Amino acid sequence: MKNILDQIRLFATEAHAGQTRKYSPEPYIVHPVRVMETLAAAGMPLPMLAAALLHDVVEDTPVTAEELSDFLFSIMNQSDAAETFQLVIALTDVYVKPAYPQWNRRKRKDMELQRVAKTSPDAQTIKYADIFDNVHEITSTDPDFAPRYLRECLAILQKIDKGNSALRKLAVDAVKEGLDTLAKQP
Question: Helix 2-15 and helix 46-54: axis angle, to 10°?
Fold first, then answer.
């Protein structure tokens, strides 16, 4: 499993090459790695760990879904590759600004929320870890946008409740803590 995750991490690192986190100079790959580590600590299986490392690749890099599929099927058994691919696709935003420029952020987020609510428990569990990782960074670095983002996260977490309950609670608590922290700031 470690060898496969190392190959996937390298693939994701290369896909995100040159990208940095929005609020820090860290390479972008630190986020997917932390999401994967959160899931690993909770004992999640290989396809979920792999999908965590790859969850932003199709959405935020030039890598196509077909290229990702070819890569996964070249290094994983058929079942794990198919499951990993399905999870990544489920986690890839569909209602993005370039595809729906006529819609405002609220409309796009509402449509995305409806879509994500229909995803599998495993995809929702990865989303919990994704939100958990993003919350701390945005709360401390963008206090102007953070309240809006955290309210969006809370709306997502209220709607997606089929995944791992412990990780969902971790994410909900982090969002609420972030909102409380921001409310106490002058």
Answer: 10
Q: Residue 82 contacts by C-beta under 8 Å, 6 or more apart in sequence?
A: none
> Residue 43: which domain range?
2-184
CATH number of 19's domain: 1.10.3210.10
The residue ranges of the chain whose pLDDT is under 50 are none
Tokens 């608590």, residue?
Answer: 173
Query: What values do phi and psi take at 78, rounded to 5?
Result: -55, -45
Q: What is the pLDDT of residues 43-59, one digit of tens each?
A: 999 999 999 999 999 99
Residues 39-43: contacts with CB under 8 Å, at least 24 apart: 39/125, 39/126, 39/129, 39/167, 42/164, 42/166, 42/167
Rounded Cα distance between 57 and 124, Å, is: 17
Counted domains in the chain: 1
Considering the entire predicted model, what is its pTM? 0.94
Closest among 83, 91, 84, 82 to 11, alpha carbons compared: 84
Distances in whole angstroms, Cα of residue 157 to Cα of each of 17, 41, 60, 63, 104: 30, 20, 23, 28, 21
Concatenating the DSSP letter of every residue in 57-96 gives HHHHSS--HHHHHHHHHHHS-HHHHHHHHHHHHHHS-SS-
